[in-house]
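Protocol step 4 of 6: record predicted structures for both targets in the notebook before any analysis. Target 1:
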Amino acid sequence: MTLNGKTPNEVYYHCYAANAKPRIETRPKVKHSTPCAKPRMCIAGKAGTKIKLRFEFLEGWFYLPIIRVDRI
């Protein structure tokens, strides 16, 4: 409550919350004006974007995953 819904990392580094950035939409028929969870954000690019997920592990530790999203 004292961080106003932000993570400690967002407060310390003064960065935008992940839910405040435009989203990547993989569903092809979704319109830009479609309501989503608040705060409502616009779609980055166009709907139907293909993505590729890459999984890595920090220094080989399987319990420290790094997930990267690449647009195709």
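Target 2:
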Amino acid sequence: MAWRIEEQVVSGEIDNTVRGRVTGQIWLVGQLEPLILDLEGNPWRDLAGTRLRFSNPKPVAGISGSLGGLQQGLVGDITASRKVRVPDISMEELLERYERHESFPWHWGNSLYLEWFSTSHGRVMIESADYTLKIDPERTWEMSEEEESEQRRANGEVMAGFMDRAVSSWELSEKSLEEEEVRPSWEIEADQEAARMDLLMDRIEARMKREGLSSVNWDRIWKEERERLRRERGEPEPEDLTPEQEAERSAWIGEANAAAQEALAEMEAEGWKGEQISERKHPVAGLTHDLALRIYQDIEKAGWLNESDQQEHPLREVVDGVRIAATKLAGALNRFSDEEEVWPPDEIHAGGVLVRLKKARECLKDTLAGLEGCEEQDLATPAWRSSILSGVKKILQKVERLIVELRR
């Protein structure tokens, strides 16, 4: 999950005049003090060695004060040269044409894309073709094409490594199970592939939303964005594979398709509110689904949340954290409720399973942060918070055990 704040930005500036460092300030609607950026890394070649100022002509309120202060961490992809299709009609007319499955007039425009990984808030993104941009004409240093290719490849590895470090910084009130310090090569490869998949999914989702596309366009957009990502990262065109590589590729395609289905389910489905995730549920996935359903029903019945409450409301963090964890755990574990599937999985499939388990762990720790916010703001009731906290910790311990088992 990422913070997407392009609508709430009023103005800002980023500075890469010092090689290896991106600093800057970003002002958000309703906040007196700006976000202060202090990040390791460089942007793409178009912004390397220079200073960019930007402003949003139509900022919209929406981000709470929980995102603020000093943003330290690592640079993701930062560029002002990404080409996107910009509609030549209003959003209202665009939505009307979308409902009628009609085309719309558009032109190519440059989109500002800012991404960073904060030690305090995780992944933060800004993407818009509507901002007014001003780049200083003079550069303090130049980035070569080779350096840009290397920077883009490094960015692709940032997400997996950074999120692992961020998650490990959380401390549970009870001691977590010990994890092995050295990750096996198959786990590193799986994390890198998952980071790439997350980036690809974010791009597909943003493009479909921006261009008013429906799910029937999914396969085409998938292929186009996958190829664009390959070119941006300077990766070679695919070569003919050996039979062994074909088998491994088929396994990865299966994992990718499963990830795509999870992403679509998280974007569109409300089925988690029902009685079943699937006919056969792994005990840990079933326990998490039942807790997610209970949390949703308790909050709905008590009326603790209003439609106007923002996504960063602590109770929404509690609801979404367990709900998405249930989705990830179902994707990782439900196949092993079938007698034909043996735990742990073979080496080819182990990476995809471990990635989902670790993402579920992230979501459960997001839930703990939400519960901490509920405690600070005295939301819900003390008895309810205590009960949910106990349930989340119980599931988190089970997930930790599964991760250790799979690594061993």
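Step 5 preliminary note on target 2. The beta strands are 3-4, 9-15, 21-28, 35-40, 51-55, 70-87, 106-118, 122-128, 132-135. Residues 262 and 327 are 7 Å apart (CA to CA).
Proceed to step 6 after PI sign-off.
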